[in-house]
Structures are given as C-alpha cells and as structure tokens.
Amino acid sequence: MLPGSGPDTGSDGAVFAGTIDEIVAALDQDPVLVEEVMGNGQTEALQAALLEKAEASQLPVYVVLTKAPAGLTTQNTAEELLTLLHARSGKDGVWLVSTADVGHVAMQVYGDLDPAVDDEFTLLRNASTNAQGEAFKAIRSECGDCQIHPALEIGVTLDVLAHGIPQEWGTQPLTDAQVDSYTSSLWTAPDTQTAHYERAEMPTAGLYAVVATVTALTVAVVAYRLVQAIGGKRHPRLRGSAKPAPPTLAERNTAVVDARREAAAAYRALEKALGRAGNRVAWERRDIATACLERAESRIGADDLLEVVGGLVLARTGSYALAHATGQYRCCYVDPRHGAATKEAPLGGGVQVPVCAACAAALAGKRPLAPLLSAGRFGSLAPYYERSSVWSRTGFGSLGGDWWQEVPR
Ligand SMILES: [Zn+2]
Q1: pTM
Q2: Cα(393) to centroid(ligand 1), Å
Q3: Has residue 383 been placed in a domain?
Q4: How far is the CA of 367 from the centre of ligand 1 (A)?
Q5: If you measure from the C-alpha of residue 307 to the centroid of ligand 1, how many angstroms do you get, rounded to a whole number?
Q6: Domain coverage including residue 41
Q7: pLDDT in tens, 177-216
Q8: How far does the centroid of ligand 1 lie from the alpha carbon of residue 30, in Å?
Q9: DSSP letter string, 374-396
Q10: How far is the CA of 356 from the centre of ligand 1 (A)?
Q11: Residues 289, 293: Cα–Cα separation, whole Å
Q12: Domain count for the chain
C-alpha cells in the first residue's frame, strides 16, 4: 500500500505512520519515530538508542526518520516534512528529520529555548558538526569504506543536547567513549551500491551519495532571469552547464555567520566614519550614510542570509557615500559578497549588469555562476534575483537609484 493511502504495517506488525497527521500522532506518544526504511537494518535498536538520548536531552526534541509522505512538493523532502510537522503540531523544541530520499538531516530550533543564547541553531549545528567530524574519523579508522548513516547525525546532536545548547562557538562536548560508540554498525552504512540492491528497503549512505549527485547533474540548466527593475524584460536561459551542488544546511549556516561578521565590521566602520564626518562632508552624503546605517542595524543579527547581506551592502553604501563626493557603491549583482562590481557584463538577453571580475570572467567563459541563493518556504534554493523581495528588486543597489529608501527600516 502506498504511504498516505492508509495504515500500513512493517515486518514487525507496527503501523506505518504514512501521513503528516499519523507522524504527529506518533510523536505525541514518543518523541522519536524511526521507520524501517530508515532503520539501518536495526530499526528497534536504533529507535531505542535515539529515544534514550532524546530523554537525556535538556531541551524538548522531536526526531523523525522515515520515507517522505506522498504529496510533498519539493525535492528537499526532509526540510519540507519538518516544516509541515512543526506547523501541524505547534511544538517548540529541536526538530530533526531525515527522509529516505535525501540522506541528510534537516534541523530546526523553534522557540526561545535558551534565553541565555541568541543563536541556538547556529551554536547547536556547529557543535553537532564538530562531533560528527570526530565520529566520522573514528569510523574511518576502523572501516575505510564505511559512511555515516543519517541517524548518527541525529545521535550526536542529541548527545550535544544532553549538555544543553552550547554557549560558545567551536565546542564539541562528546567524550571519547561517546565518539567511539558511533563506530558500531547501528550508526554506519557500508559504502557500496550493491548493498542497496540487496536490501532494497534500506537505502545506504552510498545510495544517498548517488542520488545527490544525479540530482545535482539533472538540474543542469539555470535560468538567469533579471529583475523587473530592468524594463520588465525576462532573460533567455543561460546556456546549460552543470550547476554546482547546492550548499548543505551546515554550509548555509556557516555562510550566515561569515556574512554577519563582515556586516558587523562594515557597520562599525560606517558608524565611526559618520562620527568623524562633520561638516566637511556634504549634508546630502551624510543623509545617505545615516539612512543606510539605520537600515543596516537591525539586519546584522538576522537569521536570514539575504537580510544579513543586505545589512552588509547598506553599510558599505553608507561608507562609500561619505568617502566619495559623487557616485554610489555598486556591488556584484550575482552575489554582493563578491564585493564591488568592476565592470558591466551581459547576464543574458544583452542586458548589462554590474559584476565582479570573477563573475565577468565566468560569464565570458560561459562557466556556471555561483549566485547568492535564497531559500523558499520549504527550503528550496534559487538565485535571490529569481525570487520576489526588496533585494531582487534593487539588486542590493547594483542597479542604482536611491535604492536604500526601498529597504524597510
Ligand atoms: Zn561576482
């Protein structure tokens, strides 16, 4: 029977929770749900091990390892399922979800779980990634071909949570014994495709890697569409070339942290420059700088990458206005983090946009660009200029005009 079409039973006779409602009902009984398809051949043992870790967690946790229910609309089924489950249950806590077809773990932290910490998600993700790295090293020292099963990622995150949300960046609270415990077959998967065919109900890490690669290669043609700001023209598709694999959640988190650091530095520089500016800078230029400073302030601590990058570009725009008598700061249209644009290049359809030297070279060589990505409602990623936002309308100022006035305070 297909998931979502009614109750299904596994080999142990347990009812398979195939719909969002059924999964939420299962979580009401038990905060950990491991279905056979993601049980690594030892479903009951895995369920018990994760449950024990969940019970030791200082914060509420919800864990789901399953086959994606029918009817999800994106390829990021783990992220989408997590969002839907949280929306349906309304429960705050740390949510960890993996589905058989993605092979990674989606994580979200809902609610202000630790008032002493501003960015629970980033700190938890960082400690978990560090612990996973240690576990992976231990696994590889015993088995050169073995890969980690997604359950390991969840296991180490729960182990981290036994100590609460880490208070500092760069920590890894697991003991050596805890790290070594992950070398057991419960948490590892052999890196062979044959295992998949022999045990069709149990996808392996090797299969996950193959699926991820095929998905990345299939999404080969990127549509570079310019914002309506340029005469409402739509751009023809850029010639097809393999799109780089999308960044993982951990990489996206790191990107937010990096951008925040840069934005904070740019903000402080603008603040200082404004303090020093005095009357030797024309009032119009000081007005621009003040407007940018006001709008940058609230964005630097944001969780959304586009907002943080917006804060960075606003701060640079303000500083430029103070340092130059005319003109304005133009960033690379493709990704403002590339810095100032150095030339104009045709993005498609003959329309010129300001880009950095590296993007200009990539366009000239018809190589794929690496644009700033924006996450949709269910975690799907697309170039920011393909979505609708103040950032896509203004190109982060690269398209000119008094763009900062369009940015809400
Ligand atoms: Zn660039």
Answers
A1: 0.49
A2: 18
A3: yes
A4: 13
A5: 18
A6: 8-189
A7: 999 999 998 998 765 433 333 333 333 333 333 333 332 3
A8: 48
A9: EE-TTS-EEEGGGS-SHHHHHGG
A10: 4
A11: 6
A12: 2
